[in-house]
User: Fold this.
Amino acid sequence: MFMNKKSLKQVDKQIAKEITNETNRQQNNIELIASENYVSLAVLEAQGSVLTNKYAEGYPHKRYYGGCEFVDNIESLAISRLCKIFKCKYANVQPHSGSSANLAVYKALVNPGDTVLGMSLDAGGHLSHGFRSSFSGKEYHAVFYGTDKNGYLDYNEIRKIAKQTKPKMIIAGASAYSRTINFKKFREIADEVGAYLFVDMAHIAGLIAVGLHPSPFPYADVVSSTTHKTLRGPRGGIILTNREDIIKKINSSVFPGSQGGPLMHIIAAKAVCFYEALQPEFKIYQKQILKNIQTMVKEFKRLGYQIVSGGSDNHLFTLIITPIGLNGLEAETLLHQHGITLNKNAVPHDPLPLFKASGLRIGSAAMTTRGFKEKEFKLTAQYIDYIFKNRNNKNKLKMIDKKIQTLLKKFPLPY
Ligand code: DSN
Assistant:
């Protein structure tokens, strides 16, 4: 038998060590990256299961391989649970990521060279919404809307741009927009110019799942998401729609259009995540995400900081960092040295290049999973401020390092 029955540690010490290092990093850092979360042991177990051995090209009960009876059940359960959460008729759970899901939507609904209107990257949009070095900006004619000077979507301006540019598809959704998105208004605009409305709800999917952000249905023609942000599942993508004609196009655009075999271990982990999202505790968790972000916004404002749009309606906000004499990259690096992980982010009309940026994106989903409540989020804002203000004082920084590690020890991860 060529089967190696040894553990990872016995087979590959280097990788085992790096995984241990990463586990410790996750334990020993306050995680504020708005697109990250900690999955449950159940999700992790499904993801690390024997399903990784199985090929299942095709869809449930229409596969190109034998032996698919159990993975058929798993994928069917994932689809039905997902449709139940978002109250829609059809879903595809095979996209390997959010960008793969978005690629499949483009391939299904628009042709190369067609005009697509999305949110610009500096205003908070995503790479796959038309950025010049992504497939979406290279293959399609991407035009953009941003935010008004206060950091809010301006629907009159979006309508004006749509009428001028006549897009075939309008994308609503963002990676760093902290305000409620009005999908009904987007629908009206799309109807006025005869465009598809495509909603990328990746960041806010968990909030939408429990009714804490308005749903893109019934307004969107098609909706995509990742499963690993506020939805708290494995890394992966999904596509949803109420239209039979569109799901047919999407299904062939995912397989065989842009992917081969689905990752059945990930689809099982997605199904577990959807099960968890249907439990009453998930709503309590999402409510706490919102309370925690509000606490941080309030504390940062009290400490004198500016926030894009002045606040947040969801799980994230962008702190404007340049007034304290640091750019986003410098602030991100400094905080990382002291046990706080987050990412630099452009602010609307950012004068700095993207790799420096003038802002920091801060999210509450991960630390809420870990058990942080208002008290700990308030403390975190104070620690961040303290680190910035005392960045040249080694003794004071050492003292704050200890405080951060003491706080984190009270909230261990189960891994
Ligand atoms: N890269 C993700 C984020 O951080 O928001 C979006 O897919």
